[in-house]
Amino acid sequence: MMQKQTAGRDQLGEFAPTFAELNDDVLFGQVWSREDKLPARDRSLITCSALMAQGLFPQLESHMRIARTNGVTKDEMVELITHLAFYAGWPKAWSAFDLAQKVFGED
User: Fold this and answer.
1) Concatenated DSSP letters of 61-79
2) How far is the C-alpha of 40 from the C-alpha of 84, rounded, in Å?
3) Which SUPFAM superfamilies does UniProt cross-reference here (predicted)?
4) 14-47 confidence digits (pLDDT tens)
5) In the Cβ-directed half-sphere of 12, how many Cα atoms lie within 13 Å?
6) Would you say 44 and 72 are in contact if contact means Cβ atoms under 8 Å apart?
């Protein structure tokens, strides 16, 4: 089960309170919590794929941590990055591997 997210409020609560509320309550509170439709583990794999494909590496690192919490293994993340290298780009894969080593090498 997804833990309650407060990143929006923690980082933008005073500056952009509506955005923070949408992030925490709608995206993570309503969408991510629909585990009867799609498990959080699968949502993590999809989200990491989308972020890598777009080259959004600060967000990718955060979502790799969430993915790890949601049960995604190092081997699965390595396979995800390897697979996407051919679709999203080789340089993006190199950058994603740097993050994955940092996140999944903490074991």
Assistant:
1) HHHHHHHHHTT--HHHHHH
2) 20
3) AhpD-like (SSF69118)
4) 999 999 999 999 999 999 999 999 999 999 999 9
5) 12
6) yes
- Token look-up 């709608």 returns 26
- Total Cβ atoms within 10 A of residue 63: 25
Residue 100 has pLDDT above 70, yes or no: yes
**Domain ranges (residues) in the chain:** 1-37, 39-107
Least confident of 1-5, 43-47, 72-76, 80-84: 1-5
Angle CA 73–42–16, to nearest 5: 105
Amino acid at 69: T
Query: CATH for 39-107, among 3.40.50.150, 1.20.1290.10, 1.10.10.10, 1.10.287.40?
Result: 1.20.1290.10
Residue owning tokens 């990491």: 48
